Amino acid sequence: MKKKITIIGSGFSALAASCYLAQSGHDVTVFEKNDSIGGRARQLNSDGFTFDMGPSWYWMPDVFDRFFADFGKKTTDYYELVKLSPAYRVYYGVDDFIAIADNLPEIEVTFEKIEKGSGKILHDFMMEAQSNYNIAIKDLVYRPGVSPLELVTVETAKKVGQFFSNISKDIRKKFKNEQLIQILEFPVLFLGAKPSDTPSFYSFMNYADFGLGTWHPKTGMFDVVRAMENLARELGVKFQVKASIDKIIVENKKAMAVVVNGKRIDSDIVLSGADYHHTETLLDLEHRAYSEKYWESRVFAPSSLLFYVGFDKKVENISHHALFFDVDFQQHAKDIYDEPRWPKEPLFYANFPSLTDKSAAPEGMESGFFLVPLAPGITDTEALREEYFDKIITRFETLTQQSVRNNIIFKRSFCKNDFVTEYNSYKGNAYGMANTLFQTAFLRPKLKSKKVENLFFTGQLTVPGPGVPPALISGKLVSDLINKQS
Ligand SMILES: Cc1cc2nc3c(=O)[nH]c(=O)nc-3n(C[C@H](O)[C@H](O)[C@H](O)COP(=O)(O)OP(=O)(O)OC[C@H]3O[C@@H](n4cnc5c(N)ncnc54)[C@H](O)[C@@H]3O)c2cc1C
């Protein structure tokens, strides 16, 4: 039966859900508090520079293909993809970096050169990672997290030991060189927890990295937002921006309406793609399924200090994606998860989209994005932001052996306080609730409210978890649940 569905927020999960629900014949409207859609994947355009404000790594292309195929479309109907080669560089010192090729045989050669025997070990590790990836996609991530039984399949039963060991231990058993270990631990950081708190089974992220490769939509990740918005509009979805939902009205334990900028909008179903914790604050206390104590006890993915920077010249000795791991990896992880504080020596990540996409910066110039992961909930002041910009730009100049500081003609920062005010993010988390063993699948906050009928959730605080591909999957899972009940 056709339902009037209100969707809160316009991030990837909400966009995906809007497409599936409109395809099923429902009357769908998306309400976004900000003035443009895309959530954490919005785009910043200023002074001739273009930046993706959040995600920049297009991994797991099969998940995007599957999403568009569900609508009889192909990604290429909407955007063009470039496979990055090298995929990325990892810096360890002055002019000392490892470039990760765009194919496994070459990466094996790189490993072998650094640690004798590690090429073959990597090959075998990747075979296992590929098998885990296939199981994760086939048997696990497309499950709604309703029951623990969803996780029990013939294939997962064979891997049960990998859920109770952690990926850091596993990698350290196989590899001795600290640089190679860090490269192999890096992909699970996308899941939001420390490698030592992430089950070994999640080596499927290593397959996503070395096996499937790093892609780039021609003019940035925002191409995917545009594509999904276009598809949604083709399917009849309506969008309202600058439309903040202030309250979800519940009568007789049923979600009946939302209040948008002070106006009541009646709805048969309310689906929130905004942060789960925030959405529950739109309900009266008695209708919230999770207490503040519950949220406080969860492991959240880091917040981030971000800088969007325009340089008036081309930057040298860089690649599209670059990781700066020249300081103590373990100490920075401790500063995020164990004793939250601003790291003394921050690891950081940078990308330069204008290397791949000339339109991202005026001719002869460069656009750069810098990210330092930080503990969620940390104190955020203008002075701290500047102190850390100075630290990372100094290191950047030293490691890549050039001077860029005096060539900055555009700079904007974004940090914990902005995550809270712009996205209503719990503790200013950048990418949701971490996927630790005890926060996986049926152990995550539910897609369907446990207390209010006709109220549903999607996005990075529910199943399957953080990241753009999981957001697309989350939108599909919640739409299936809604359709089942309708
Ligand atoms: C800096 C950064 C880098 C990242 N890098 C990567 C990457 O390289 N690759 C990758 O795969 N993933 C990456 N991620 C993670 C990925 O971007 C997210 O997991 C994903 O985009 C989350 O989508 P979502 O739909 O759950 O939520 P969001 O994108 O947060 O969408 C929620 C929306 O709800 C809106 N909203 C909130 N409250 C209200 C309200 N009351 N009324 C109306 N609207 C409201 C918000 O404004 C927002 O638009 C990154 C994230 C960040 C922040």
Short description:
It contains 15 helices and 19 strands. It has 486 residues and is an alpha/beta fold.
CATH class of one domain: Alpha Beta
Shape: globular
Uncertain runs are: none
By CATH, the topology of one domain is FAD/NAD(P)-binding domain
What is the helix tally?
Answer: 15
Which secondary-structure class do the elements indicate?
alpha/beta
Strand residue content: 15-25%
Question: Average pLDDT value?
Answer: 97
Tell me the strand order in the biggest sheet: 7-6-15-16-17-14-18
Q: Portion of residues in helices?
A: 25-40%
Major β-sheet profile: 7 strands, mixed
- Count of individual beta strands: 19
Classified in CATH, the superfamily of one domain is FAD/NAD(P)-binding domain
CATH architecture descriptor name of one domain: 3-Layer(bba) Sandwich
End-to-end distance: 6 Å
Describe this entry's structure for a reader.
This protein is of the alpha/beta class. The protein is built from 15 helices and 19 strands. The protein has a seven-stranded mixed β-sheet with strand order 7-6-15-16-17-14-18. It has a five-stranded parallel β-sheet with strand order 9-2-1-13-19, with helices on one face. α3 crosses α4 (118-140). It starts with a strand and ends with a helix. The mean pLDDT is 97. Bound molecules: flavin-adenine dinucleotide (FAD).
